[in-house]
Design a protein that fits this description.
There is one protein chain. By secondary structure, this protein is mostly helical. The protein has helices at 9-32, 35-45, 48-53, 60-84, 87-102. Helix 1 packs antiparallel against helix 2 (35-45), helix 1 packs antiparallel against helix 5 (87-102) and helix 2 (35-45) runs antiparallel to helix 4 (60-84). The chain is elongated, with a radius of gyration of 14 Å. The termini are far apart.
């Protein structure tokens, strides 16, 4: 596995929270044997490229896509968690909301 160094601390923290949320979703999917939660996990696994693309200055479409995808997945997890009341789902949602806030995009030059 190749180690990547990120100069942007916000991106590093954002990605860390996305990966941790993905791990929490995976644990919840295994624990509950739920296809719905497994689908949420797969959606979370697809988020890092959007977060990375949002870091390009002037890439407003990529920035919007990242904010929307991360935020919507966190909200969807909240909705699913209303029915199951799972601590791991709650943790995943909090991590994704935090990741969305940490997704600091560079200012145009």
């Amino acid at each position: 596995m190749v180690e990547t160094t990120y100069k942007n601390a916000g991106l590093r923290d954002c990605l860390s929270n996305i990966y941790n949320a993905t791990a929490a979703l995976k644990a919840a999917a295994v624990e509950r044997d739920s296809d719905v939660i497994l689908s949420l996990q797969h959606a979370a696994e697809a988020l890092p490229p959007y977060a990375e693309a949002a870091q390009v200055a002037g890439a407003f479409d990529a920035q919007t896509a990242a904010f929307v995808r991360i935020g919507c997945l966190a909200d969807l997890i909240d909705e699913v968690n209303l029915d199951v009341d799972d601590q791991l789902l709650h943790a995943a949602s909090v991590l994704l909301h935090l990741a969305n806030e940490q997704l600091v995009v560079p200012e145009p030059a």
